[in-house]
Specification:
Layout (H helix, E strand, L loop, with lengths): L1 E6 L2 H11 L3 E6 L4 E3 L4 E3 L2 H8 L4 E2 L9 H6 L5 E5 L7 H4 L6 E5 L7 E2 L2 H7 L4 E8 L9 E8 L6 H25 L14 E2 L15 H10 L6 E5 L2 E11 L12 E4 L3 E5 L4 E9 L5 E2 H8 L10
Parallel strand pairs: 1-2, 1-6, 2-5, 6-7, 8-11
Antiparallel strand pairs: 3-4, 7-9, 9-10, 12-13, 13-16, 14-15, 15-16, 16-17
Helix pairs in contact: 1-2, 1-6, 5-7
Length: 311
């Protein structure tokens, strides 16, 4: 199949590289160059870099409603457009262009978790199952007919980064299978059940700060959902402390703790009180320091009885 590709971040670059092994990619549309990294150097997004490495033409329109853009895209003669985390709504003037229209990879079991950050929110909400969907695009957010889905289990320790390691290769394979079915005329799109639809929002700047009056399991789910970015955080002795990994803690001999109060359990384990239950803090990152395990943090800070996180 001759395809046109729309995508921007790492998952888009991964899927693009896999698709280029089996299909002819006529062009790639990506987000515009912007400052990236610690030094804020202006550079291309991962999908742009992947395309340029293989000599595929790259387009970086400021917006997709440019009236000249559909004609520009049509000249490439793509039979199908593929969208993976492009970052903007695709207008009808574009998604209806190719003969087989436009498909999108969405990392959730649609109609659940339409919108931004579905992998993170599935973990934050404590889901035990998620999946990937390939759907036809329409003018409503993630509401198009479903071509293929794959589901898989989530365990209680999985982080968003670890979930992405599953989604990337499986998503690329599912896209390839969908394209093959579309080319063969065997795809059978299924209308989504609107009554089962749920939506998730972007991760805003306020969410990562831990509120210790919440429940231990809710805080744990938030920590893993925000790992590796933007990372949940609190304060300790007046400075930011990022919390990378946690586990709910239920040992009967552990001390009673108020929300945010910390204690050392059996010399090497760090516990924190919450509004409901206790939480074991497995790894942290003090301000200006590298990530460390709890034992290293305990040894370096000489915790005092009654000290609290969040103050």
């Amino acid at each position: 199949m001759r395809i046109g590709f729309f995508g921007t971040p790492e998952i888009a670059a991964f899927c693009l590289a896999r698709l280029m092994e089996r299909h002819e990619v006529a062009f790639v549309v990506t987000g515009c160059d912007k400052p990236r990294g610690r030094c804020l150097q202006v550079s291309g997004c991962p999908a742009k870099c992947a395309a340029l490495e293989r000599g595929v033409p790259v387009l970086e329109p400021e917006h997709l409603r440019d009236p000249a853009l559909p004609d520009e895209l049509a000249r490439f003669g793509a039979e199908l457009f593929v969208v993976v985390a492009y970052g903007a709504i695709i207008p009808r003037a574009i998604f209806d262009l190719p003969r087989h229209r436009t498909i999108n990879l969405h990392p959730s079991l649609l109609p659940r978790y339409r919108g931004a950050a579905p992998m993170q929110w599935a973990l934050i909400n404590g889901e035990t199952e998620t999946g990937i969907t390939v759907q036809l695009i329409n003018e409503r957010l993630d509401a198009g007919d479903i071509i293929l889905q794959e589901r898989f289990a989530i365990d209680e320790t999985m982080t968003a980064g670890e979930l992405a390691e599953i989604v990337f290769p499986r998503g690329a394979a599912l896209l390839d299978e969908a394209i093959v079915r579309i080319a063969a005329g065997t795809a059978a799109p299924v209308v989504q059940d609107e009554s089962a639809a749920t939506y998730c929002k972007k991760i805003d700047k306020d969410l990562p700060r831990i509120v210790w009056t919440g429940g231990a399991r809710d805080i744990h789910n938030m920590v893993r959902g925000l790992n590796p970015a933007p990372v949940a955080w609190t304060t300790f002795r007046g400075r930011v402390l990022k919390i990378w990994r946690t586990m709910p803690f239920e040992a009967a001999d552990a001390p009673a703790l108020d929300p945010g109060e910390v204690a050392v359990y059996k010399k090497k384990r760090l516990l924190a009180g919450t509004g409901v239950g206790r939480l074991e803090i497995v790894s942290v990152q003090p301000e200006t320091k590298k990530v460390m395990d709890a034992a290293s943090f305990i040894n370096g800070h000489r915790l005092q009885a009654g000290e609290r996180l969040g103050v």
